[in-house]
Design goal:
alpha/beta, TIM Barrel, Four Helix Bundle (Hemerythrin (Met), subunit A), 2 domains, 16 helices, 10 strands
């Protein structure tokens, strides 16, 4: 989710669910320690609960970055051991750490010693020619022994050579069953599942007991970003609570308040609206909504009127569609 789940995206997503935990895009330890911390780590208090996802492989650097994250107010520190991009591999972290469970354990132990908030790990079921049954279970045991608070498993292998990052999100086959076997064999380890989950009905199926095990959570990535309207169903369908807002139009109204404040502070409209293009997916007027924002929000001086005009296009299409029924 690099370059996707920035602070504007997370604020937008929080409008639709009070209960879901939000994760930052992966930030490297070097960027956290030496970079523009406010730009990289700053977030709105409304985003809680929110987790900082770190990329790195040096225990001391990860401990330092975790402390900085906690000082900024993050509720969880997550170590990414699943990203397969070339940039990540060149930095010797991300999915290639599946080959080094002892090092990951040292990283987890260092972060646990540095902060009091939960420390979690996101991983794959293996990389390249690894046997997933051996690689995942060995990896899990290592981080458990180091005190990890939860494991988030993307239920695919990552092929570090031969597949692009995009292909690694789709080409390697999903193996949800291995995650259930891991949970059954390690019932005290909180485990969430990730990968290929495109709907809340599928999420409910994965949260139901299977083969004598029940997982503790699900993580949505691309589905939540590309079709954010589904997040309105998270609280009622997965937690039994009312949704914070009634529908996508109320989401636009609520987001407009945030957008106005950000515009006043110098943020460009397109930096925010790029995250909402999929909000009305499958609805009358969705294409007009996307097209208007994509072409008008990037223009110099674009303001709140652009967002309101895009939403009005959807309302007009919905009115016409309703009249035709």
């Amino acid at each position: 989710m690099m370059d996707w789940t920035d602070r504007h995206c997370r604020f937008f997503h929080r409008l639709m669910s009070r209960r879901a935990v939000l994760y930052t895009e992966m930030v490297t330890t070097g960027a956290v320690i030496h970079g523009d911390r406010e730009r990289l780590l700053g977030f709105d208090a409304a985003e809680h609960p929110v987790a900082l996802q770190l990329g790195g492989s040096d225990p001391s650097a990860l401990a330092a970055a975790a402390r900085i994250g906690v000082d900024y107010g993050y509720d969880e520190i997550n170590l990414n051991c699943g990203c397969p991009s070339d940039r990540v591999q060149n930095g010797s972290f991300g999915a290639c750490l599946m080959r080094e469970p002892a090092l990951v354990a040292d990283c987890v132990a260092a972060m646990k010693a540095a902060v009091a908030v939960p420390v979690t790990v996101k991983c794959r079921i293996g990389v390249d020619e690894q046997d997933p049954e051996e690689a995942l279970f060995t990896f899990a045991d290592s981080v458990v022994n180091a005190g990890v608070d939860a494991l988030i498993v993307h239920a695919r292998k990552a092929w570090l050579k031969g597949l692009s990052p995009r292909e690694n999100r789709d080409v390697p086959p999903l193996d949800y069953d291995i995650v259930f076997r891991l949970k059954k064999s390690r019932p005290d380890l909180p485990i969430a599942i990730n990968g290929g989950i495109s709907s809340l009905s599928q999420a409910r199926e994965l949260l139901a007991p299977r083969a004598g095990a029940a997982l503790d959570g699900i993580m949505l990535g691309r589905a939540a970003y590309q079709n954010p309207g589904l997040l309105l169903g998270v609280d009622p369908e997965l937690f039994g609570n009312a949704a914070p807002l009634r529908d996508e139009h109320e989401v636009i109204d609520a987001f407009s308040v945030y957008v106005a404040a950000q515009l006043a502070s110098g943020v460009r409209l397109s930096a925010m609206t790029r995250h909402i293009l999929g909000l009305f997916q499958g609805r009358p007027g969705a294409r007009s909504f996307r097209r208007h924002l994509a072409t008008e929000a990037v223009k110099p001086g674009a303001g709140l009127d652009v967002l309101r005009a895009a939403a009005a296009m959807v309302s007009r299409h919905e009115t016409v569609a309703a009249a035709a029924q």
